[in-house]
Structure formats: structure tokens, C-alpha cells
Model the fold of this input.
Amino acid sequence: MSATDRDMLKLPKKKFKMWNWVWVILMILGLVLSVNNTQTSLPEFFANFDQFAEIFVQMAQPDWSYAGTAIPYLVETIKMAIISTVIGSLLAFVYSLLIARNIVHNRVITGVLRFIMNIIRTIPDLLLGSIFVAIVGIGPVAGILALTVFTFGVVVKLFYEAIETIDPGPSEAIKAVGGNGMNNIMFAVMPQILPYFISYALYAFEINVRASTILGYIGAGGIGLQLKNTLDMFNYNQTGMIILVVFLVVLVIDFVSTKAREALMR
Amino acid sequence: MDTTMKKLPPKPVTAKSRAIKWGGWIISIAIIIWSCTGIDFGGIKPTAGQITGAIFNGLFHPDWSYVYNGSGEDLVSQLWQTLCIAFLGTFISAIISVPFAFWAANTRHKKFWVSESGKIVLTFIRSFPEIVLALMFIKAVGPGAPAGALALGLHSVGMLAMLFSEAIESLDDGPAEAITAVGGSKFNVAVFATLPDLMPAIVSNTLYRFDVSVRSASVLGLVGAGGIGYPLIIALNYRQWSRVGIILLGIIVMVVVIDWISGAIRKKLV
Amino acid sequence: MAEQPMIEMKNVTKVYDNGTVGLKNINLKINKGEFVVIVGLSGAGKSTLLRAINRLHDISEGDILIDGESITKAKGKNLRLMRRKIGMIFQSFNLVKRSSVLRNVLAGRLAYYPTWKTTFNLFTDKDKQRAYEALQSVGMAEKVYSRADELSGGQQQRVAIARVLTQRPEIILADEPTASLDPKTSRQVMEDLKMLNEKYDMTVVANLHSIELAKEFGHRVIGVRAGEIVYDGKMEDTPQSVFDNIYNGGKGKEED
Done:
């Protein structure tokens, strides 16, 4: 017995993994650089926390009488979201058929179109909003245009990825029967991806409702303008009301949209 | 023996499914038509076409001098600051998100309303406008990058914690049960069972969130919370189209590069 | 006076991009009304050969004639009209899962219509009745409005056969039609193919992995090994040793 005890090995030292250390160092370096660059100091934040909290407290007591003024703008916001989602999704649908490699076999065409798509996708919604405000002026039209482009960017990638992952079998069958490209799309591709399309469009709608509530801040229509006004005038109770109403609307829309998407995927 | 063929019966549709189908179409079209009402479409400036042309012009003849001139106010510095804001914000949010994720995750051992309340809190954080959050932080720490980083950090929790909690929900129960069986506390379970399995999801989702944060950080500058948003809005207001062009190009390049790097890292993780 | 063969393959060779040889110098004539089974190991080239006939796979050398017309040189609409004459049954059925059985079967008539009509689902009542009758022939009539994914594997394959019947082709290519099915359903499917061959005079070319089914239903057997035809003869004249040979890579003795 004592022989086996002596034969027990000592716990070997853990292997030195270079990669893990590299990551840790990169993280720390990144932190140091960012904190330095941005001059962020948490202590300062905590010191001034009372100011932050004061605003929050005021917002937490929403001005209910303001609801009457806010709601029409909220309605406009929702309308903006709906229009942009519909137009953006339709455009994305057509475009996605052009860049799916199992529908269009020409690599040059898909490559160029994908490049353009990627460029469009990089610009954030509010920046699009600012640009369109500069072009068409203040008002919901700028917001609709901005969100349409934004929706297009979000949805087109989801669409074409869905198209490329369909079962190739039915397409083979359509080809064997003597069908052409359009037949393939109508009989093999569409039935498989239609639920996904609608699902992604609803997802885009959820995002758009949130985005359109902010666009008004830069003048692109919707309730965001009221947000700016109340903030500028330090009427935080009213700001709180706006945030509350927006939150409720987002909750409801998210819930309905999620249920609809679940039903579709059945 | 001669079996004559039957005629094709009409399609069986229940009254309910017909009602749902027709109802669905009518409601959808009604909603779309309603959305177009009340929007003032005529408010387009007459100069719209000209300005679009000017912007495109600015894109193709960008103001290269703005790229780097050592003043700390140039494109490269601003982009770098935007990246730092995004990095810091994402880092903060990743740390804060973990406990929130545990709160909101609907696992077998929890009452439904506990995790549901967590989810609602997260939805609230997500719908709280980032801009307002940034302004609140500006009141506390002054205008500039710190406000942006903090606002980003807090706001991202909404999305990131949601992703984490979904990852937690999809984890295998086994390891958690094992830790409970040896007498571990809920906290032990979290640390020894859940967290290790969660690590790939944490890293992957955080990287994804960093992607999004870079875009958000460019936007926060619009309200003065630092980053490239501010120079852009100034250039737009002063109609300096070639500057707008170079800034847009800079943003596009930055986002594309970050997307590419983050995608490459995530592929290596899987 | 000699009737031209329904399918004629002349010196057909297929080399893949990576250099692998799929088919090597295939010469084959199949006449109208024949029931041919092709046997061979997996990867021997059976599937490539079949798919070359309706040009789902393109060939590198040689020519393939369908009823005297070259499908190798056909393009665009002409190619589709030639494909219309050839029906295909797949191992994985290839039905559109979310579509109804009726719509799947009607797809067999696609090449008889201009594109816009089928895009708007304007099939004639006559064709819908034709589809329904095809479903009755394979015993799937009551499933006509069901979604395809509500059916079992065997049922889906029979719907696929109904699709082929609705297409009214002159040739049927069957690529391992029974590989995913249990013995009873496999037999049903083969009986359906036999019915199509005898009642409608359709030329059937089937890849089978089951020697039993091959012997029972095939009139002519073609053995394929490594992309080449190593045997071609009438089923009744073919001794068991031929099958052993083909499946054992030429080692001769049957391994237990």
C-alpha cells in the first residue's frame, strides 16, 4: 500500500497557454487606452451621481397630462415605422433574390451587389436620418427614407442567408421537370422561405419602432422631437411620460410580433 | 374492375381559416393605408435633388486634409475615440450583463415571474432611448466621451443580457444538477457549472455587441457625447459636403474593418 | 425500319473539376418501353450516369440523344422541353415540404405552361383533374390537400410518382427510389413504376441498391463499376455470379 502511495504522481503543473495570456493583455491594453482616451472616470460619475439620479427621479414621476400631447406624435412614429418596414422589406426581398448564390450563378454580379449592400449596412440609422434631414428637410419624410434604407440593410442579409440555406432538392426536381428560373423561385424557393421573410420583416419592424422614436430628435419626425423639446426645457416629468409611453408601445409590439413569428414558424 | 376516376373535390377550407386569411390581409392592407395618412409628404425641400448631388459629390471628392492633421480633432482621432467609447462601453456592459442575465433566464429551478420580471426590466433598459441616457450622463460627468461610454455601457445591457440569458436557457441542465448534488449553493452553481459553459456565448455575443456599439458610438456624438457623430452633424449643418464625404467614408471603412475582424474572431471561436 | 433508341449515350465521359473521373466512355442504347435497372456499388457512377441523361449533370465528352435529339447541345427553352419528356424520382423525394400535395403534383406540368401562368397559379382545371387522377393511381387521393411534410417517407415517394405521372413523360429516371424506404413501401413504389412502364409505355431507368428488387422488376440489367459499364444484359439471362462480381469489385466469390 505504501508502495502505491509513493507511486502516486505529484499534480503536474498546468500547461502554459500562450494564447490566453495574449487575450488578457489585449483586453487590459484596450481598457487602458479607452479609459485614457475618453477620460472616463467612474469615481467622477459616482461623485456626480446625485445629478444623474435627480433627473431619473423626475422622470419616474411622469406628467400624465402630457400624454395627450405625446400620443399623436407617437402615432406618427408608428406610421413611420410601418411604411419604412414595408417598403424596405419589399426592396430587400427583390434584392436578396439577386444576391443569393443558389439563384444567381454569376459570381461577379452577386459580388458587386453584395459589396454595395455591405456599404449601405454600415451607416447607423441616426446618421442616415441626419443626412436625409439635410436633403429633404425636417419632418417625417426624412425619417421614413432613413428607416427604409436602414430596414433594407438589416433585412437583406437575413433574407439572402435564408435563401442560401434552403433544401436544394425541390429545386433539382423543378429543374428535372423542365422548369426555368422563375418556376424554381415560385415553386421551390418561395414556399420554403416565405415564413422566414415575414418573420424577418416583423423583426425589422420591432427595431424600426424603437429607432423611429429617436429619429425625431434630429428632426426626422415622430415623437423624438418632443423628446428633445422636453429635455431642452428641463421638463423631465414630461420626458418621463414620453419614455413610459414608448416603453409600453414597444412592449406590446414586441409581444405581438414574437407571437406572430412563432405562429409562422410552425 | 374498371375503376372510373373520381373528380377532384373542392379545397376544404374551414370558415375559421378563411376568416383568418381574409381578416389578415384586410387588416394588413388597412394598416398600411392608414400609415400613409397624416404624413406630410409634400414637405420635401425643393433643393433636395441638388443637395443629394452635392453629398454624392462630396463622397467622390472627399476632404482628404481632414484625415489626419495632428490637431486631435481630425478624422483618425475622432474615429479612434469612437472605437474607444465602443470598447469601454461594451466592456462595462458585458460585466453588468452577467448578473442581469442570471436574473432574466428562465431555467427549471426558478419561478416564472422572477425571470419574467427580469426580462421586462431588460426590455425597459432596451427601450430607454440611448440619447436620453447620454444626455443624463452628460449632466453628471459633463459633455464628451465619458458620457457616451457610460450611456453605451448601460444601454447595451438591455440587449447583451437578453442574449446571455437566452444562452443560459439553452444550456444543458446536467452540470448544474451535479453541483447541486454535491451540496453547492446557487452561487456555486453559477460559478462552477453555468459560467464555464457560458464563456463561448459570452465572448461571441459581446463581440457581436461590439459591432453594434461601434455604430451606436458614432451616433452618440450627435448629442455631444463624443465620437465622430459630432463632426458629422457640424459638417452637415455647415454644408461642408466634402467633409461630410470623408467622414462617411471614414465611418464606412471603420465599420467594415471592425465587422471583418470580429467576424474572423468569432469564426475561430466556434 | 429500326426504331431509333429512346436514350442513346455515345462515348460519354465526365471528369469533375478536381480531376475525378465520374463516367468513362459510356456507350448505351435504351429502347422505348424497356425497364432497365442499374446496379453497382455506391460511388460507382450510377447516379452520375442517370443525372447525365437529363443533364442535371453536364458531361465533359460525348453526346446523349433523347429520342434522336441531342440533349447535350440543347439550350434554354429547347432543353426544358426535352426535360419535360423525362420524369425523375429522387431518393430524398424532393417534394416541397410546406406546399400541398396537389401543388407538388401540379409542378409536373410546369414546362407545359408559359412562366407567368404558373407564377400566378393559373393551372387549368383539366390539369388539376389530371393531378388528382394521378394521385388516385398511386392510392394517395385522400391526401390531395395535405401539406407534403405531413406524409411519411413512403407516401411522399408515391406523391413524387404521381408528379411524374402528371408530367406524362416518355422516360422515367429513378435514382435509388427505395433507398430511404422500408421493404413493404419499397415494393409498392416499384409496383407503381411497373404500372407506369406497362400501362403508359414509359421507359424506366432505375438505380437500385437492392438486388432482390432489381431481379424482380428489371427486364434488363446494367452493371456499373468505377464509372464504366461492366455488364449489360437481359435480367433473365443474368446469373447471380454477375451480381456478386459487381458488388465485390471483381473478387468473384460472394463474401459472407
Remarks:
- Chain C has two domains: 1-85+170-256, 95-168.
